[in-house]
Design goal:
Layout lengths: L13 E3 L10 E4 H10 L7 E5 L5 E9 L3 E11 L7 E5 L6 H12 L3 E6 L10 H15 L6 E2 L3 E2 H7 L6 E4 L5 E2 H4 L5 E5 L7 H8 L4 E5 L7 H15 L5
Parallel strand pairs: 1-3, 6-7, 6-12, 7-8, 7-9, 10-12, 10-13, 11-13
Antiparallel strand pairs: 2-5, 3-4, 4-5
Helix pairs in contact: 2-3, 2-7
Length: 246
């Protein structure tokens, strides 16, 4: 007996859309999404596409019509329910272009729920481009199979971040001067991880963070890590010990 090919194929493109997803709800794809499907992937009428919108899980759709600048798709059935990820916020100092994109991409892949840029005294970058950041979040979610988008929060200076945070949520800050071993320090979410800039926390900032309710200094080992490495190492340790890798 000839084996039945897997459906949908593993090569099926996966696309984020803003529209609601459900049986009988047509979806219009325009702009970059339409170009990607029609010109880059060279998809035709009848081909499958996986869709998600960050709210309704993942749906298998079929291309119904292809026009010059838009495609019409018909969702058939849900292939994955909406995921539940640990309520983990990664608070990080913005870093140079290229490296911040890498940090955001990998944090999304690791399952972070929220991304909070925090401006500190030694930050080499004091602004972020929310549109570009959102685009990287979407692209990472498309590639790694997430059905929930990580939420990008507005940038805050460190003082405002400490003042506005929920004092009942543990604040694990990666302190190059040492702290509890990361693998044994984390408790289940909700939690926040705070990572300093490339030059580290100033003495004033370290004192302010340590004085914050629920703050716990953690160590990421004996070596000095770059800002993006420290952030991703801390998130990986959290997911392994208290997150959804267990």
């Amino acid at each position: 007996m000839v084996a039945t090919p897997a459906w949908p194929p593993k090569s099926t493109p996966r696309l984020f859309v803003e529209q609601a997803l459900g049986e009988g709800i047509g979806v219009t794809v325009e702009g970059n999404g339409a170009h990607y499907l029609a010109k880059v992937m060279r998809k035709s009428v009848g081909d499958p596409v996986l869709l998600f919108n960050g709210r309704d899980g993942e749906w298998l759709a079929t291309i119904g019509e292809i026009h010059k600048k838009r495609l019409l798709l018909a969702p058939g059935h849900q292939t994955r329910p909406q995921e539940t990820v640990p309520d983990l916020t990664l608070a990080f100092a913005p870093i140079k272009k290229g490296r911040i994109e890498f940090l955001v991409e990998k944090a999304v892949e690791l399952g972070v729920a929220k991304l909070q840029p925090v401006i500190m005294q030694r930050s080499v970058v004091d602004k972020v481009n929310p549109d570009k950041m959102h685009a990287h979040i979407v692209e990472a979610a498309e590639q790694c199979g997430r059905t929930a988008l990580a939420e990008l929060l507005p940038p805050l200076k460190l003082g405002a971040f400490l003042d506005r945070r929920d004092a009942g949520v543990p604040l694990y800050f990666c302190d190059e001067e040492g702290g509890a071993p990361a693998l044994s320090a984390f408790e289940p979410a909700p939690s926040t991880i705070l990572v300093g800039p490339e030059g580290g926390f100033t003495d004033e900032e370290r004192a302010a963070v340590r004085a914050a309710p629920g703050a716990v200094a953690i160590s990421l080992g004996p070596r000095i890590l770059r800002a993006e490495t420290a952030a991703l190492a801390a998130v990986a340790a959290f997911m392994a010990g208290a997150g959804d890798w267990k």
